[in-house]
Amino acid sequence: MSLTDRSQGAAGAPATPPPGGRRSGPTVADIVRALTAGPLPVRVRGYDGSAIGPADAGITLSIRSERGLSYLLTAPGDLGMARAYVSGDLDLEGVHPGDPYEALQVLKDVRVRPPALTEGLALARGLGWERLVPPPAPPQEALPRWKRILGGLRHSRSRDSSAILHHYDVSNAFYEKVLGPSMTYTCAVFRSPDDTLEQAQATKYDLVAGKLALRPGMRLLDVGCGWGGMVRHAAREYGVKALGVTLSRAQAQWAQAAIEREGLSELAEVRHLDYRDAPREQFDVVSSIGLTEHVGVRNYPSYFGFLRDRLRPEGRLLNHCITRADNRAPHRSGAFIDRYVFPDGELAGPGRVIGEIHDAGLEVHHEENLRQHYALTLAAWCRNLVRHWDFCVSEVGTATARVWGLYMAGSRLAFERNGIQLHQVLATRNGPDAVSGYPLRPDWLP
């Protein structure tokens, strides 16, 4: 379609011209029409007054500035959209910024197409080449991977510390509102979709405790312990002496204060440590709930070897982590997640995770996929963000709050569509003569 033919929008839908008649160069509606195929499921409105897509669409994408358009054009895909949205140059009208799930559901059906060469050149000349120079990224964006080498090699101690600081040391008060009283930033387990988030998080901790067969007097090491949810639950509910380690100083400070507030100091402790610096002694059980995503796939052998060495013979390991849906998918995350959420985060398929646990000298006894539970968990976190939006914005700023809404709603959609999964894997370090201490049937089941 010629860029000068402005009478029709995508799939014949009328494109609204800008106020005051035709302008020189393509309008925002022209550009959208040139770069999409098929009918648009949303309305797109430009800062120039042009619009395209169904007038009665429930969702409207409002491109509010030339900078927003440049973000979209110079970084196609989720990164460009994230930059425009986070900076406030793109609005998703019809949804709350704390939970843009419904907008993302619709946007997944937008079909983007590269223009033909002649059409693309005409588009570029009409826009002006300066429009195709990337604007500076929002300050919430981490450096691209190739620039992070200045902070150390990927998954070195210094670079891992910077990545954790980027995501977790945002604001404990912000996390209290989003995560709720349990301060648990991992997948909950729902007996019913009607369960509250707090009920589901307690069920998750009880499930982990059951799989590890926790009993009074046992010693637990929880690596990547976050705000100490598992540590406190194990000490309070099972009389276990629990040590948690986290690379986030803010998490460790909050967790230790919570331990003291709950009167658990004789049983529970959280230290600000890299998991690789955890005490070199053997524990009865080890839990890793949400850490595997941060260690790097190439480091799985040393990671699971480290966890094996922290277990006494017949001790149990519970590894709980997000995975790809299969073993062929790339390990590295997409641009938005890598730049705005989890720098250097990597995911493997469930087969790779289980294989690496076996190869580290542990024996896997049970595996469980909690994919649907994580979708429910993320929906609950989004509801919390919406409910406390004004407070969260006052605490971390509108841009960071928008990052979280976009990230959690998008992740919910990915879990629902089986793009990613959540697997719990239970294994033992066997003693002499392959004695595992594991019963003939799972001892946490009725």
UniProtKB/TrEMBL annotation:
GO terms for molecular function: methyltransferase activity. The keyword Transferase applies. Gene3D superfamilies: Vaccinia Virus protein VP39. Keywords: Lipid metabolism, Methyltransferase, S-adenosyl-L-methionine, Transferase. Residues 1-26 are annotated as: Disordered. InterPro entries: CFA/CMAS, CMAS, SAM-dependent_MTases_sf. Pfam families: CMAS. One of its GO terms (biological process) is lipid biosynthetic process. Signal peptide: none annotated. PANTHER family: CYCLOPROPANE-FATTY-ACYL-PHOSPHOLIPID SYNTHASE. Belongs to the CFA/CMAS family. This is Cyclopropane-fatty-acyl-phospholipid synthase. It comes from Micromonospora phaseoli.
